[in-house]
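Risk register update: the risk that structure generation would not scale has been downgraded. Supporting records follow, first protein first.
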Amino acid sequence: MTKKALVYGLIAGVIISTLMVISMANCPKDMEGGTGMMIIGFSTMFIAFSMMFVAVRSYRNKEGGGYITIGKAFSLGAVIAFIASTMYVITWMIYSHFFFPDFADKYAVAMLAKAQAAHLNAAKMAAKVKEMDDFKIMYRNPVMVVLMTYMEILPLGLVIALVCALIYKKKAPVVQ
């Protein structure tokens, strides 16, 4: 199972990392396309995490003799999700450092522009400005960037691992 998790995790990681770099290279640096970029981002995550379905089904049919428990299927999917997520985080850390070092500033400007367009009252706007200032300070800490980046992708991977486990579970018949 470890080899299968590693192989499919790396495949999923290459898919998500490659698609992230391609989409970020075409991303407007002023963040005006935020919603569209989110749709593209989550779509690429779903595409990459589809490797879980291939891996779990393959494991069930080959190594499991046609059977797999929910726990084993979820474990396989979770390891794949973790490997792919780690590659995603590493790719983002490298990409943002070398090609998008002002990400936090651009993101804050885009979120404040969005808040202004929503015609927030002065108190809510001041709170949003403080939130974005806090975000920029927090984003200077690489550990926080890593944790936030994992939070973008890993929960989705774990949910997909659970769905995959529920779909492919098949208990071995009880021998009497």
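Supporting record for the second protein:
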Amino acid sequence: MRDMIPKQVFLTTGVASHRDQLVAFEFALREADIEQQNIVTVSSILPPHCELIPKEEGVKTLRPGEITHAVMARIETNEPGRLLHASIGLARPAQPDRYGYISELHGFGMTAQQSGDYAEDLAATMLASTLGIDFDPDAAWNERKQVYVHSQLIIDTLSVVAAAQADPTGKWTCAVAAAVFRF
């Protein structure tokens, strides 16, 4: 089973609207270029030595119908004009032999910037706690980010966000963000 450890990961997002909830989800997956996959959602560990690759490179490796493992955030609503967001945050340790974290965040009322920052903060906080980095959990994200950077134990953090204002006519709007693993 050692070959079940992902070697690569790419990040992707999509947003779509339709009168049917399921079709809105399908169209959001299509915008994210992962609609032909049988997606199995997994939790939040970024394996050691897992290379972050560009979305375009990752999508080229996908085969229709393939069982594809991903960390996914998904949100949908048919409430006209409601703000919705789905984000993936990623935190990678400086030492490639250590594992990192991926966070998924979805909900209502946040801007894309707020959602991305929060998802990034979640991933970094989980990683920092495993690395023994001392930080104030009540401090603002920008302050904690500086602590992480200065520790030199976390190489970087990043996020991708799918955010939208729901369709004004009451159609279903779906947002997805995913970290898609490749073996």
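The first helix runs from residue 21 to 31. On this basis the risk owner (M.S.) recommends closing the item.
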